[in-house]
Amino acid sequence: MATEAKRRRVAGPVGSSDADPDPVAGFLSWCRQVGLELSPKVAVSRQGTVAGYGMVTRESVQPGELLFAVPRAALLSQHTCSIGGLLERERGALQSQSGWVPLLLALLHELQAPASPWSPYFALWPELGRLEHPMFWPEEERRRLLQGTGVPEAVEKDLANICSEYYSIVLPFMETHPDLFSPRVRSLELYRQLVALVMAYSFQEPLEEEEDEKEPNSPLMVPAADILNHLANHNANLEYSPNFLRMVATQPIPKGHEIFNTYGQMANWQLIHMYGFVEPYPDNTDDTADIQMVTVREAALQGTKAEAERLLLYERWDFLCKLEMVGEEGAFVIGREEILTEEELTTTLKVLCMSAEEFREFKHQDGWGDNKREEDSLTITNIPKLKASWRQLLRDSVLLTLQNYATDLKSEQDLLGNKEVYTKLSWREQQALQVRYGQKMILHRLLELTS
Q1: pLDDT score recorded for residue 373
Q2: pLDDT at 52
Q3: What is the 3-state secondary structure (H, E, C) of the chain?
Q4: Distance between alpha carbon 270 and the CA centroid of its chain, in Å?
Q5: Quick one: pLDDT at residue 10?
Q6: Which residue has the higher pLDDT, 373 or 33?
Q7: Which of 40, 284, 304, 367 is a good FRET partner for 255, with 20 to 30 A between their CA atoms?
Q8: How many CA atoms lie within 13 A of 137 on its CB side?
């Protein structure tokens, strides 16, 4: 497997001069102290892993076998850190859009505390200055390599939010408690690095079904679990219980093979944005391509001739907004085997392609009613059977989307097909190429199905 996933290097506490000569031994000793039980069948290793540290099997493992169990007391969170009481008391002042500020302050404090109980755990972290998230790429490189993928826009939002959060909440809090935060951790750059680390390495406990209306749980750092690298076709899964978090095998894993967790159903653009790596084509079965909702409106407007037609189209768009099917910043998400936003895209194509009389009736019903027809079902395999007007609008939308990329599919195929040229590309160029190529393959399949 060629995934160059989370590239791990020894971090050590902020301000420390010497890394532990054997960080794995130190970490395993710490695991024993805190009651973190690793199965004798697994090992933390740099050898035999797709990138940096990972976990490999010493013996073959069967589905359902426990790989390790992390006691809740060993988790690092806003509640378990040594300033947990203060963070809880100040909870109101630390609220933010991300919801991550308390954990980030916990990390800032523990990283510079010489006697932090988590120091042996930090020794297995990646070197913060070498994280590969696109937010650390020069802006010109990010735009050039990832134009059209949605990543540059997501990163710009992140950077603006991080800056705002740091100066309005985090820095004032640290300055109010100078005894708890040394000057060396009062840095926007360090804060940005820790945001990337939390983005890539933290876990969020799922809500119970009856808690669906509640705010999501705060992120946690889970020692041992965050050593595992990701694959869409993973072989282990994290299970939550009252006293422990357990990593359990979900597939047979032969001796000497790497253990992979899943970070969720992640498209390559999400993997590179949040984790700094991708799965090479065609390994990522969860890959997707986006068609911006406003692009479909633009494609529909191309087909209008008179001003009255344009006004009618905007009226339809406003009605779709009212139904919450579209929005100015939303996207229709197309997977390899399914359309993840099937209802939204079906309704949009239906409404934008209706006759004026059908639209009046549809508007009067305030939406679908109960007359959804089988032939209007927007599955990937059903696309060729759609009405010609729907297919044409979808095709025009795909063509407009493809114009957002700086290169075409043929040039990407030539790069990927020439091993000698591909290996000379930088790591970032290779990762970005995989993101673009995966998206374009999905979009070009739509072109074939709508022709």
Answers
A1: 59
A2: 79
A3: CCCCCCCCCCCCCCCCCCCCCCHHHHHHHHHHHHCCEECCCEEEECCCCCCCCEEEECCCECCCCEEEEEEHHHCECCCCCCCHHHHHHCHHHHCCCCCCHHHHHHHHHHHHCCCCCCHHHHCCCCCHHHCCCHHHCCHHHHHHHHCCCCHHHHHHHHHHHHHHHHHHHHHHHHHHCCCCCCHHHCCHHHHHHHHHHHHHHCEECCCCHHHCCCCCCCEEECCCHHHCEECCCCCEEEEECCCEEEEEECCCECCCCECEECCCCCCHHHHHHHHCCCCCCCCCCCCEEEEEHHHHHHHHHHCCCCHHHHHHHHHHHHHHHHCCCCCCCCEEEEECCCECCHHHHHHHHHHHCCCHHHHHHHHHHCCCCCCCCHHHCCCCCCHHHCCHHHHHHHHHHHHHHHCCCCCCHHHHHHHHHCHHHHHHCCHHHHHHHHHHHHHHHHHHHHHHHHC
A4: 4
A5: 34
A6: 33
A7: 284
A8: 24
Q: Which residue has the tokens 């999501």?
A: 216
- In this structure, the chain runs to a length of 451
- Across the range 21-37, mean pLDDT stands at 95
